[in-house]
């Protein structure tokens, strides 16, 4: 599906807002987090900084790793850092922490599905990768290694570091790892911006 240029920025911001909300849903479910969020949660506990602040600092650190990889950020890269960091803190302040297991499972599943949609939405506008996505593609481009294996290696490393530092890994971690790729792939055709042939203008 084509998306007009006027809608690209709106979709980018909406996708990143939803991404922050989906992170908060998984956190409040307390059933295990995505690999990067296991690390974020551990640093949040250790430093006492807000979750969003930790995400922003970690994102900035990852962006520094782009320098030797010669990756070039876009407006979407900057927005990724700012919007997700703010939206996850707001969502955490609003969302309750349920005690019933059934509600926690529903919150987890809903968060993972929403994360898949949000991921597709911000990737689909093609305005620059998020810091972690850029790290993955940059390493792959510089080394020739498969993107799949680079991503797996990075996520295993941050998951292990986060878990050792006290982050929450569990059912949600496994569900996220298995579901996020297929979910994002399923949503992408419906939210991807495409230029008109020969014009470079979206439709």
What does this structure look like?
The protein is mainly alpha-helical and 203 residues long. It has one domain. Helix content is 73%, strand content 0%. It is built from 8 helices and no strands. Mean pLDDT is 91; it is low at 197-203.
Task: Note the topology.
Layout: H1 5-29, H2 35-47, H3 51-64, H4 75-94, H5 101-124, H6 131-143, H7 147-164, H8 171-191
Helix pairs in contact: 1-4, 1-5, 2-3, 2-7, 3-4, 3-6, 5-8, 6-7
Percent strand: under 5%
Segments where pLDDT lies below 50 for 5+ residues?
Answer: 197-203
Helix content: over 70%
Radius of gyration: 17 Å
Number of discrete domains: 1
User: Structural class given helices, strands, pairing?
Assistant: mainly alpha
Order of helices and strands: HHHHHHHH
Biggest beta sheet summary: none
Mean model confidence by pLDDT = 91
Span between N and C termini?
9 Å
Q: Which term fits the overall shape?
A: globular
How many strand elements? 0
Number of helices: 8
Task: Summarize this structure as a short list of keywords or feature phrases.
73% helix; 203 residues; single chain; mainly alpha
